[in-house]
Amino acid sequence: MFKRFAQRRILTPGPTELPHGVKAALVRETTNPDLDPQFFQEYKQVIELLRPLLGAWQSRVYIWVGEAMLGLEAAVANAVRPGTKVLVIDNGVYGSGFADLVKMYGGNPITPGLSWRRSADPSAIERILDKEKDVEVVTLVHCDTPSTVYNNLREIAKIVSSHGAYLIVDAVSSIAADEIRVDDWGVDVLIGGSQKALNAPPGLTILSISKRAWDRALEVARPSFYMNYQIWEEWLEKGGFPYTMSDVLIYALKESLQRIHNEGFESVFQRHKAARAAFRAGIEALGLEPYIERVDDTCPTATAFKTPLPSPELRRFIWEKYGVLFAGSWGPLEREIMRISHMGIQASADSIAASISILGAALRDLGFNVQVGKAVEVAIETFR
User: Fold this and answer.
1) Domain that holds residue 94
2) Per-residue tens of pLDDT for the chain, all 384 residues
3) C-alpha span between 196 and 182 (Å, rounded)
4) Rounded to 5°, angle at Cα 225 from 221 and 228
5) What residues contact residue 19 under an 8 Å CB cut-off, 6+ apart?
6) Residue 178 and residue 301: Cα distance in Å, rounded?
7) 214 and 289, same structural domain?
8) Reduced to 3 DSSP states, what percent helix, strand and coil does the chain have, rounded to the nearest 5?
9) Whether residues 170 and 256 fall in one domain
10) Is residue 114 part of a domain?
11) Closest Cα to residue 221, out of 71, 60, 78?
């Protein structure tokens, strides 16, 4: 029995494989981020590279050391007081998970029980807010990767803003894959992470904070140091950080952002949409059912599909025989679906061909009648 791979390949929806330039940035000469004034200027340069990607010209933008969960918790901690009524748009694993954070900080989450297989209907959100007039905060996951459901951020933000509520958005898996305009759309807090479509290592939280959200945080006055917006702003105004930054992670993020700017945002966004269509076409050509009912309701960064045998078993077989790592899910979807990533550099013809061919080969090995070549051909033709 010979190995069918020389090195393993990671095709999971975060953390993702790293481009060569990002890997190179990780071995740059390091410095003392607390004392080196040049590093502080480089941090500010990275913030300016983020602004157009987020559409955040008036909002404050920060990069914190800590996986994106830090930003999600900080957003809730700085907006929710005991008794605050929060509408949790719960169509997905992460969408539902916001309710736990809300309860942790004494809030009262409203969970309408939305379908995990469809985008949240903006008109349904409006009806809920019309009924629940004392909702102060709304949480939304733009791209819920465990289910791969995608929500219409622009329309939902408009509705939430018109009702005077604060909108917190998890955009960890959509930043650098689709258009986001936090200022124009009225997003109060938007959270991103480095390890998804940005193709940088995990360990950084990206935050944009509107003037309204900043004022709300001052009112809530959460007793925290690490998650305190005001402390961050005060330190940045002095030309430093409230705790030691990771210089190498900032270098890696800068390289990633420069690559995205060089390609051009429109090209990046179109490439992700094309990859979404291609993966769906390839999955269907293998006789598999996409989990999300409509392609437009699917994240541009990941595709989920139902598996003909328990997902953990299929994934383990592919990993051990072919050296390719795909993802499963959590909770009620853990054994039902598998997920393939097309984030950042993975939204490419080579990743499409590799993913569909390896998945098809594994299914054929396990006794399923699939046309691997036809599925790859369909996927690549769709991507064209």
Assistant:
1) 20-261
2) 688 899 899 999 999 999 999 999 999 999 999 999 999 999 999 999 999 999 999 999 999 999 999 999 999 999 999 999 999 999 999 999 999 999 999 999 999 999 999 999 999 999 999 999 999 999 999 999 999 999 999 999 999 999 999 999 999 999 999 999 999 999 999 999 999 999 999 999 999 999 999 999 999 999 999 999 999 999 999 999 999 999 999 999 999 999 999 999 999 999 999 999 999 999 999 999 999 999 999 999 999 999 999 999 999 999 999 999 999 998 889 999 999 999 999 999 999 999 999 999 999 999 999 999 999 999 999 998
3) 19
4) 50
5) 199, 255, 256, 259, 344, 345
6) 9
7) no
8) 45, 15, 40
9) yes
10) yes
11) 78
Domain boundary among the residues 238, 261, 284 is at 261
Would 130 be classed as within a structural domain? yes
Q: Which two structure tokens, joined as six digits, stand for 80?
A: 């929710």
Which CATH number fits the domain that encloses residue 374? 3.90.1150.10
Strand order in the sheet with 85-88: 60-65, 204-209, 189-193, 166-170, 137-141, 85-88, 108-110
Q: What is the CATH number of the domain that holds 222?
A: 3.40.640.10
Q: Are strands 143-144 and 149-150 parallel, antiparallel or unpaired?
A: antiparallel
In a domain? residue 109: yes
Encoded amino acid at 295, one letter: V
245 shares a domain with 138: yes
Q: Are residues 78 and 173 in the same domain?
A: yes
For the beta carbon of residue 197, count every other beta carbon within 10 angstroms.
Answer: 34
Residues 373 and 253 in one domain: no
Q: Which residue has the tokens 């007793």?
A: 223
Asked if 76 and 126 count as a contact pair (C-beta separation under 8 A), the reply is no
Q: Looking at the 3D structure of the chain, how many domains does it have?
A: 2
Written as six digits, the tokens of 191 are: 């959270």
* The two structure tokens encoding residue 39: 């590093």
